[in-house]
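Office hours follow-up: a student asked to see two folded examples consecutively, so here they are.
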Amino acid sequence: MSSLAALREGYERFDPRAYLQNNYLPPRADFSSEEFVVPWKLRCLAETFASGEIHGRTLIDVGSGPTIYQLLSACDHFEEIVATDYLAVNREELGRWARGEPGTFDWSPFIRHVCKIEGRGEPWQEKERRLRCRLRRILPIDVHRPDPLGAPLRPPADALLSAFCLEAVSPDRAAFARALAHVGSLLRPGGHALLLGALGESFYLAGAARLPVVPLAEDDVRAALAGAGFALRDFRSYAMPPALRTGVDDVDGVFFAHAQKPLEA
């Protein structure tokens, strides 16, 4: 069995609710201080979208998982958001949230925090409504195929976002770099790519699933972006403090990268 096949088999045991509990409740999702990891991620995205440079018709979120926090600042700048995931259980979780069904994960603390840091005085319920309205498609994706959606995205996306996906589904650094190049094909020339991901992580837990991660250093991410033809615009990193090392993974830190595809692809 190949490493990629072993990864696919492992993800059959992925539990979205356990993953959400491990990563998106306290202590990691503590909004009392900007020094915690979730507020740091939200601020990276809010500040980048606040520039006004990244906007258009379509944003594609690659490997959404069961989460929507990464889309909260993006939804103000695009007519349509396309969420994607390899796992049907994650697509189903996203669909239930988008339809407003009862019993889904409570993202309201995240939405309130983003509204606070964006500073426009917008009621959080309005942002929630806007994201639900603009999250129009939830599609299957396989980042290890040259055509990740199975057919070209028409028209290509104006922006691409991916959070904690590519390193978590790649058996090695070379596969990570190839996957980044594959998803880059979904983006129009001149389009922007925003990545959040793990540094120095070798595994994480999601219920009964213990899932391998390719441990990345900052230079690995920079090299993969350059190899895929992207120009790096911004790079930030966060060191995971001891209090947030809860045993659900062995992550050392988190990176945020903003890159741009050249106008002549």
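And the second, which I mentioned at the end of office hours:
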Amino acid sequence: MSGQTLTDRIAAAQYSLTGSEVSRAVCKATTHEQTAPKKKHMEYLIQASQETTVNVPQMVDTLMERVGNASWVVVFKALITTHHLMVHGNEKFIQLLASRNTLFNLANFLDKTGSHGYDMSTFIRRYSRYLNEKSFAYRQMSFDFVRVKKGAEGAMRTMSVEKLLKGMPTLQSQIDALLDFEVHQQELNNGVINACFLLLFKDLIKLYACYNDGIINLLEKFFQMKRSQCKDGLEIYKRFLTRMTRVSEFFKIAEQVGIDKNDIPELTQAPESLLESLETHLNTLEGKKP
């Protein structure tokens, strides 16, 4: 389906009559066209989220209305627009989403109009789960893992043991929800899902950087931790090792669909001897003989 439908035009016109330019821009970003939301509408909404005079709750409500649409195209584009604003909009946007008890209730979403509708509905259900996790993680941590400072002075490297042991499972859950999108190269066959995949790829790079920072911090503190903390820390480290394979697979798909190799981080495998020394240390604390 190309071009805006009559329904799209009526929806945008309704908001023009009520004087809500923001809601009109949301409708324009989430038309029935099987293309990514237009850049000009995204940029307008990002800018609007920064303005003190703009009603951000109304922006969120209009996006939620669009998510309630029957068409997979409109729903997918509403989720993409929400994701884009979570990453690039004013922080009050993600704060508002995180303050809601339920965000997207799309576990049973199904567009039965043709085989494409069935296929894309699967990805909508998975994508909405990821955005729910992203919002929940913000509520738990009071910051967004994607937007937070990385590196030696970053949040995950400077975090206390207590906060780290609470924060790492939250980060792991968000990464798991992203990897559960489980798309293959041949399924990235339209502008809508491609726009979603690119946002997920960019999130994963930043989440992986946070994950790496957290693991470095964990390993630096491990031998000074209490026994119970070491036990939790060891489980976190083991889960990190198993996730590396899945992260690597996601990056391979990114490469297959033409994302520049230079934009894809190289994953270095930790030596097995490191895991052994952590286990030995915990066994010593628990009084077990080697």
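Two things to take away from it. The chain has a mean pLDDT of 92. The CA atoms of residues 11 and 182 lie 33 Å apart.
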